């Protein structure tokens, strides 16, 4: 998902000290456990946006007379103990839910702390990123390789119906994430819907630590880079691998971003710059149909003339889609796999009082070819699907197809 952060607490957010993220969710980018909805952090100087476009005619303030009336009636009639803090949080959460945007959310101080812990890449859960589909269902964006969700058999696009018997209908991504999270060694039961068939998985939680990048030289002298997420160390690790590949005079390179929910904007631009010539467009950010900022490749592309295949799938979202789109549109790589997730909006994280935060959609991002991929994804040049039999046998026809392509 694409996100920007302002970590400065304030009643009215200040226009400085923002940080920008590209993460799915999709928030998003949840690395599940979390979400990620799904969110790494990058630095940027982005001012907050004033009310423009469709919202410029809104009143300066909302009327809370009817809200106060409901509060009075609750005090007078509710059979139970009311918690003022929870009521206040409910008001703020209700405002964000009323936008109808799954990526716009209010976090109280506790939820914000948990959300930011996820950005470190270390957490306790089942190891899956969650998002929402166009029917507002909570879905698995991608299970993380080697962790409980994948081992149990969860797949990208699985719709999560219940968590420990509780329906996810109407819940936000982060509310669902909080239900699934838990201490290492405990279990959580998920009811999912896959291709019209209902399945149930009971999964034991583990501590999750996700490496940003893995690289190696495969037989046949083919360089292989797997990016699991875009963190602050990603661009350095990718450049290190690129230098090693150049020294080894590799025949070609596979950039594997399957199941990658996104991450840091700066890391995504830096990674694209390993292939895309300096000055060429990587993406544009637009708000209300107007270009806010254009991001271009920087430096000398180490692997510009090295044949490259990018692997993508349904779990490739946000920052990984930015890189895939930039390499494809600049004609420096071939895409193989299945259509990507389709996360083309930009969120900004705004710090509030007492550690609370507001995550709000503020813009859309566009590929170099001018296309916004939100809810559409990016189609590969060569479609190769993974079957249930492939998963069961541990086969990888997509990677095999990339190797075959580079050996031509």
Radius of gyration of CA atoms, rounded to a whole number: 22 Å
Q: What's the shape?
A: globular
CATH class of the domain at 210-344 and 365-406: Alpha Beta
Mean pLDDT across every amino acid position? 84
- CATH topology description of the domain at 210-344 and 365-406: 2-enoyl-CoA Hydratase, Chain A, domain 1
Structural class by helix and strand composition? alpha+beta
Distance between the termini: 35 Å
The DSSP helix count reads 10
**What are the segments in which pLDDT stays under 50 over at least 5 consecutive residues?**
1-20, 23-51
* Fraction in beta strands: 25-35%
In CATH, the architecture of the domain at 210-344 and 365-406 is Alpha-Beta Complex
Instruction: Outline the biggest β-sheet.
Output: 9 strands, mixed
Percent in helix: 10-25%
Number of strands: 24
User: CATH homologous superfamily name of the domain at 210-344 and 365-406?
Assistant: 2-enoyl-CoA Hydratase, Chain A, domain 1
Compact overview of the structure:
The chain has helices at 65-77, 84-97, 109-118, 148-152, 173-180, 234-248, 265-272, 319-329, 388-393, 397-406, and strands at 2-6, 18-23, 33-34, 42-43, 105-107, 122-125, 128-132, 138-143, 159-163, 166-167, 187-194, 197-204, 206-209, 213-218, 222-227, 252-256, 262-264, 281-287, 290-296, 308-312, 334-337, 345-351, 357-366, 382-383.
């Amino acid at each position: 998902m694409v996100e920007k952060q302002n970590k400065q607490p304030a009643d009215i957010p200040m226009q400085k000290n923002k940080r920008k993220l590209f993460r799915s969710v999709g928030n998003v980018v949840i690395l599940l456990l979390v979400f990620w909805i799904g969110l790494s952090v990058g630095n940027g100087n982005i001012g907050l946006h004033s009310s423009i476009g469709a919202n410029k005619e809104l009143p300066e303030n909302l009327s809370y007379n009817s809200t106060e009336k409901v509060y009075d009636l609750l005090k007078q009639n509710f059979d139970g103990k009311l918690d003022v803090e929870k009521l206040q949080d409910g008001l703020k959460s209700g405002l964000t839910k009323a936008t109808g945007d799954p990526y716009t959310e209010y976090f109280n101080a506790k939820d914000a702390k948990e959300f930011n812990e996820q950005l470190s890449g270390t957490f306790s859960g089942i190891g899956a990123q969650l998002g929402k589909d166009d029917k507002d269902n909570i879905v698995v964006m991608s299970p993380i390789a080697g962790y409980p969700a994948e081992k149990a058999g969860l797949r990208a696009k699985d719709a999560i119906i219940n968590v420990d018997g509780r329906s996810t209908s109407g819940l936000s991504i982060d509310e669902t994430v909080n239900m699934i999270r838990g201490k290492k060694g405990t279990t959580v039961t998920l009811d999912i819907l896959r291709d019209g068939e209902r399945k149930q998985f009971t999964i034991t939680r583990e501590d999750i630590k996700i490496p940003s990048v893995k690289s190696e030289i495969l037989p046949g002298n083919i360089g292989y880079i797997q990016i699991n997420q875009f963190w602050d160390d990603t661009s350095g690790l990718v450049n290190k691998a690129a230098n090693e590949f150049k020294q080894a005079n590799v025949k070609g390179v596979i950039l594997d971003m399957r199941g990658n929910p996104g991450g840091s904007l700066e890391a995504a631009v830096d990674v694209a710059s390993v292939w895309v010539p300096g000055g060429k467009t990587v993406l544009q950010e637009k708000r209300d149909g107007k270009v806010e900022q254009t991001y271009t490749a920087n430096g000398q592309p180490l692997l510009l003339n090295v044949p490259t295949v990018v692997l993508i799938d349904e779990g490739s979202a946000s920052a990984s889609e930015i890189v895939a789109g930039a390499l494809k549109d600049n004609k420096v790589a071939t895409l193989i796999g299945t259509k990507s997730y389709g996360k083309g909006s930009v969120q900004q994280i705004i710090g509030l009082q007492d550690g609370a935060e507001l995550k709000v959609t503020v813009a859309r991002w566009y590929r170099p070819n001018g296309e916004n991929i939100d809810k559409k994804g990016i189609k590969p040049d060569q479609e190769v699907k993974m079957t249930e039999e492939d998963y069961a046998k541990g086969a990888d026809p997509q990677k095999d197809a990339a190797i075959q392509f580079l050996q031509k």
